[in-house]
Amino acid sequence: MLLGAHVGIGGGFTNAITAGEEIDADIIQVFTRNQMQWKAKPIEEEASAEFRKAFRASSLKAIVAHGSYLTNLASPEKKTLGMSIGAVVEELGRCAQLGIGIYIFHPGSHVGKGDRKGELTEAESIKNVLSRTDGMHVKLALEIMAGQGNVICHDFGAIANVLGMVGSERLGVCLDTCHLFAAGYDLRDGESVSATMGQFKREIGMRRLLAVHLNDSKGDLGSRKDRHENIGKGKIGREGFSALMHYPGLARVPMALETPGGTKYRQEIALLRKL
Ligand SMILES: [Zn+2]
Ligand SMILES: [Zn+2]
User: Fold this and answer.
1) Architecture of the 2-274 domain
2) How confident is the model at residue 84 (pLDDT cuts 50, 70, 90)?
């Protein structure tokens, strides 16, 4: 398994690598800039070179990036859409500079215009982003959402629709276990994990799975609440995560924890390995 967690870049990008090694991770997830601000200073060439060097020298096997929380590639408003596309293009450039091959992003919200319209806008935006980053070897992983509010892409059908409209090998999927469960996909035991992943295989395909977020869920099955809980302490529970750890096809997919109180990452990674 490629287990790890989301770690901070405060004080410099290379600190994330040290943090990853301290929690005994195989992989880490980082933001490439402040996720709550539109503007970011360009990364100095020296800092990115140092980061790539530190990664090569580390025990980490992969690094994935998580996009800004502000972008909405499904927005019906021209200004927000333009800013979002610009920000994603910029972040992909930062990933390329840092040597990060996978960029995970939230699909965003249709803001009242309906799921199908949102998916159409999403696909158009992604195509725009891809054409503006042509030649960059960074893949995009659209993250499944819990289904809160007007957020789009909380089911495999919607994601398959966007993937189909975009039609690019650079676009894949990130599955978040909390979001899946809150969206109504059961993961509580071996049988339900097999059923959910089987459905993913049929509707989207394992080839498209670029990353996984490992989070237990505070909310019930189908609650549509995006509330992460520590592994084994939520409504999914240990049995569900044990089944996921043994699910064939997940062994090579980077899996990052985003559970509350990040100080427990080391124990949670150890627990997942034991399961
Ligand atoms: Zn996310
Ligand atoms: Zn979440």
Assistant:
1) Alpha-Beta Barrel (3.20)
2) very high
Q: What are phi and psi of 190, to 5 degrees?
A: -55, -45
pLDDT digit string, tens, across residues 221-234: 999 999 999 999 99
How is the chain split into domains, by residue range? 2-274
How far is CA 89 from each of CA 129, 130, 153, 233, rounded to the nearest angstrom? Answer: 6, 8, 21, 37
Name residues whose C-beta falls within 8 Å of residue 29's C-beta, 6 or more positions apart in sequence: 4, 5, 6, 7, 63, 64, 65, 66, 104, 211, 254, 256, 258
* C-alpha to C-alpha distances, 9 to 29, 33, 58, 64, 99, nearest whole angstrom: 10, 8, 16, 13, 15
- Distance in Å, CA 113 to ligand 2 centroid: 23
| pLDDT per residue as tens digits for the range 20-72 | 999 999 999 999 999 899 989 999 999 999 999 999 999 999 999 999 999 99
Determine the distance separating the centroid of ligand 1 and the alpha carbon of 28, expressed in angstroms.
Answer: 14
- Compute CA distances 178 → 97, 135, 188, 220, 267, whole Å: 31, 34, 11, 10, 19
Ligand 2 center to 199 CA (angstroms) = 21
User: CA-CA distance, 12 to 113, in Å (whole number)?
Assistant: 40
CA–CA dist 147, 162 (Å, integer): 16
CB–CB of 103/30 below 8 Å? no
Least distant ligand from the CA of 105 = 1
First-to-last C-alpha distance (Å) of the chain: 12
